[in-house]
Amino acid sequence: ALDDASCVLHVRSEAACDEWKDKTYRFWETRRADAKHEVPGVRASIVQDLQEPYAKDMAMNICREEIEVQGRNVMSSYVPPSGAHVSSDRPPLLLIHGFDSSCMEFRRLRPRLEERKLESWAFDLLGWGFTDPTPCLETCEDDESREMEPMGCGPEAKTKHLHAFWTQKLERRPMVLLGASLGGAAALHFALRHPEAVKALVLVDAQGFIEGIGPMATLPTPFAKVGLQVLKSVPLRDVANRMAYFDKEKFATREARDIGRLHCLLPHWEEANLSFMQSGGYRVSSDIQRVSQKTLVLWGEQDAILEPRYATQFQQTLPNAMLRWIKESGHVPHLEQPERTAEAIEEFMQSLHERKPQQPNTTLA
User: Fold this and answer.
1) Burial class of residue 308, CB neighbours in 10 A (0-12, 13-18, 19+)
2) Catalytic residue, candidates 100, 124, 258, 303
3) For labelling, which of 30, 84, 185, 231 has a CA lying 20 to 30 Å from the CA of 276?
């Protein structure tokens, strides 16, 4: 059994933890028309013990709304721009989290982007975060009552979900698409299939040259499920939490771990991750050279998860890329150095409007 006492609420008893999980399940399964504001008391109960103000604010601003994806209504989780700080003369910026993460990983970056009047959206990919994958894991009927097979939660399904969100919420406006870690592979996958939707890319310590997920894709289902329980476990999340940061003492806290693990306690997490594993994962390395959009590659100088050599490989492979190193940062500069990260993004987005483009394939300090 999982150590549920380590969840975000830091509950002190089994009964209290069961009560929290029951509320969370009801939060997940609600299908009310006013989904953006559903069950506010539940959201408050989830965040009541968080100490970090940015985490509290991000959690309280999560919206959940049905997005139609090929005849399926997917209750999708995202954080919209505040509205008060949006500048209409710049493209929207859509933030895509990493493997088995959620929009909560942008909790420190988002307010700094808004301070710079950037229209930023944080989005939970299908099968991860607080987006409900259930409709894509089940058979359903189309408008003519014909049975449709499950979409699953693999790369193609994630791209279809992202495209539907772009169409229905961003109203098909060309966007700057930011992908962090495996979200970088997701962003590249999307840009290759829907170039009309992507004005530019920002890759943050991104995966792209590592193909698939290795032997995990072919594990028999019972063994894969055991592996997923390990993935969700507190000890493994502790290790990943410490590996992600340069300044471990300051950032690799218990609360950081628990925030990153919160979505794992929701229903269908295991099924959704199993579906992704069995899909084989993202395979984009051979196509990266075809990505023509202007791209900013951001990389933490002390990344211990994806070696900095991948940053220069992106710079050399992408036709129109610039590389910027983030000092005193590990794998997640958007969490560890959000001010420097926001500054780099703002400068890049400003350059999109300059008549004389910056020299491609350059390196910035």
Assistant:
1) middle
2) 303
3) 30
Residues forming a β-bridge with 296: 202, 322
Q: What is the DSSP string of 276-289?
A: HHHHT----GGGGG
The catalytically annotated residue of 76, 181, 275, 329 is 181
Residue 328 gets the label, from left (phi > 0), alpha (psi -120 to 50) or beta, of: left
Residue type at 258 in one-letter notation: D
Token representation of residue 151: 């979409």
d(CA 98, CA 106): 11
Count of beta carbons in the 10 Å neighbourhood of residue 309: 10
Asked if 95 and 109 count as a contact pair (C-beta separation under 8 A), the reply is yes
In the numeric block, which tokens belong to residue 259? 């925030």
- The three-class DSSP label of residue 25 is helix
Tell me whether residue 3 is one of the annotated catalytic residues: no
Q: Could you read off the pLDDT of 103-125 as tens digits, one per residue?
A: 999 999 999 999 999 999 999 99
Q: 102 near 263, Cβ under 8 Å?
A: yes
What single-letter DSSP state applies at residue 176? E
Q: Which residues lie across from 67 on neighbouring strands? A: 74
- Separation between Cα atoms, residue 221 and residue 292, nearest integer Å: 39
pLDDT digits (tens, 9 = 90+) for 142-196: 555 566 788 899 999 999 999 999 999 999 999 999 999 999 999 999 999 999 9
- CA–CA gap between residue 75 and residue 83 (Å, rounded): 22
Task: Given the residues 97, 161, 263, 331, select the one marked as catalytic.
Answer: 331
With beta carbons less than 8 A apart as the criterion, state whether 86 and 136 touch.
no
